[in-house]
Amino acid sequence: MSQAQATGAFSLLAKRPQSIIENQIYRRQRSLELINALPKELDDDKQNETNHKTYVVIVFSEKAKLQQCQDVEKIIQQFNVLTTLEVLSKTEKYLYLSATTDNLLRFADESELIKKTVTGSMQKFNYHSVEDFLLSGMTANDIVRYCEAPVLIKDAIKPSLLSYIRNGVIEDLFPLHDYEYLEKFSFNWRRRSLPIEEIRNYFGSSISLYFGFTLFYTKALIFPSLFGLVQYYYSFNLSLVSSFYVIWTTIFLELWKRKCAGYSYRWGTIEMTSLDKPRTAYKGELKLDPITSKLTLQYPMRYTYLQMYCISYPVVFLCVTAAAYFALYQFQIEAEVLNDFGAESWLLYVPCIVQSVLISIFSWAYEKLATFLTELENHRTRSQYDRHRVNKLMIFEIVNNFFSLFYIAFVLHELKQLKYQLMMQLLIFQLVCIAQEVGIPLLAVVKQKFAKFMQKEIDEAIKHQVSDLARYEQCFFESGLDKYQSTYEDYLQMCIQFGYVVLFAAVAPFAALGALVNNIFAMHIDLFKLCNIFKRPFARRTKNIGAWQSAFELLSVMAILSNCGILYLQPNIKNFFVNLFPNTSDISFVLFEHLLLGLKFVIHKAIHERPRWVRIALLKADYESSQAYKNIKKLKAQSICSLINFRKRSKKS
């Protein structure tokens, strides 16, 4: 490389850290202009041969040598993946990966993707029977979806590249955004709902299930929001309020299971099991699997259990104890402020505000700790990993967010202070969420506006070295974006919000309305961030929201206990039970609480977790599979009989 070229490359890289996120709108518009400027006279066949769609980009580190980059390229080519290596400077080395439709279909067969057949059932894709999966109006190019192609390529090549990743030769590996497809997610005032199916086709089932759940939850919040308004103006009896929230939470969670089953069936993930592929971070030794008879990574479960029960949960207990102590210490400070400055002093608000801020800080710190502890446990699959991490998190978050509220309600018996404390904590929680959801995207958009006037063209030396300028610009810009981790934090916010809505609904009628308004904006902001602020994540397959379903159900059961407790603390209610049952007034409270639990159980049993059409479709798929197996056995038997008869005739002749 000449000195001028190196200087041009260096000058471009020098701007990268401070301008890469700021220039995303400019880059997108620039890339679309270059794509539209491609020569129109090229026929489709020639263009398909010369310009295959780039699905994945590998970014090499500064210490990667040219020979190592070429070795990586040769390894990948062994899987019939099309590659283009561009080494522009010591710090800019890219390997673009693409694949033909035929190769993607082979990968889909090896990965056992579930696809819809012409008979309407969902079956494992078979490369040798492509015609069985060609629905009306489809071609072979439509079988593998937008979200699946990058994952198929990554799953095929990544095991062979682990040594290069661990040694730091490969710095990053990510799929490129499809800017034309992203236009489907642009904000539209006329759109009444999120395009869940389009989100699934682009981001995969894990992210689309989060948006599907958020949309379903937000619509469900309409009912408690209206009920809360009526409750505020007409002062409903608290027994009616408790009964309403028992019915609403149960029906909401049961209907979501049905909705989720429909999603997972259509997306081919409903029959995922613990035998699915292990996590990338899973450690173990290669041993013969007793089920599949293949060499797979295995790790003794006794070590996982030892880590969980001897290290993880004792640490969790210490953190929970510390959170409870800080929650109680707030009341001691309030008592001292009250004695020193009186009941009219504005300083009485300070301990509550400080406690609300500390809750957010502790949640952030404990989330990192829970992730670290779960990593040490070395769970095999992603679903197992998520379940154990959520379990740790929910134990802490319930104490961190709600312990002080339970203490005020059932120890101090101060319902006015409970209402004040709850609304203050909910307000701080929503403000923190808004700061995270709105602040970062808004700052990025403001910087992008300014960047349009400051952006310079790419150096001419770089332009002459790259084979596809639009692809290079897109890769250069996206490689500087932040990596999207998971939907973990988003589910956590929803779960805590759900707790504030239902646990003390008797004294907080407007909590549901505040959550409804917040979620309406949060959905669109989350989608905006995924499309503009982060790298495009590799799609993850999942059949449900996992441990978060159990977390929401736990909070719904706790809501019955807390609201019944608040009901019993009312003087008129307590006097009524004392007069009615002089010797067993406490038992009457337990009976009412068990009555509501029984109502929840009846609703749970009355609503099947899978819609009837899903159950019929699964039975149909099982029937077709058994019939196909019988036909194969029958054909094999007929072929053996034909061979025997042929040999007999040969001997006679």
UniProtKB/TrEMBL annotation:
Predominant location category: membrane
* A Pfam family assignment: Anoctamin
Q: Does the record carry Transmembrane as a key word?
A: yes
**What superkingdom heads the lineage?**
Eukaryota
Which residues are listed as membrane-spanning?
209-230, 236-256, 303-326, 346-366, 390-410, 422-446, 498-525, 545-569
What are the annotated GO cellular component locations? plasma membrane
Q: Where is the Anoctamin transmembrane domain?
A: 199-618
Record's bilayer topology term: Multi-pass membrane protein
What are this entry's molecular-function GO terms?
Answer: chloride channel activity
Q: Does the keyword Acyltransferase apply?
A: no
Q: Which UniProt keywords apply?
A: Membrane, Transmembrane, Transmembrane helix
Where in the cell is the protein located? Answer: Membrane
InterPro entries, from UniProt?
Anoctamin, Anoctamin_TM
User: In which family does this protein belong, per the annotation?
Assistant: Belongs to the anoctamin family.
Q: Which PANTHER family match?
A: ANOCTAMIN (PTHR12308)
Q: What is this protein called?
A: Anoctamin
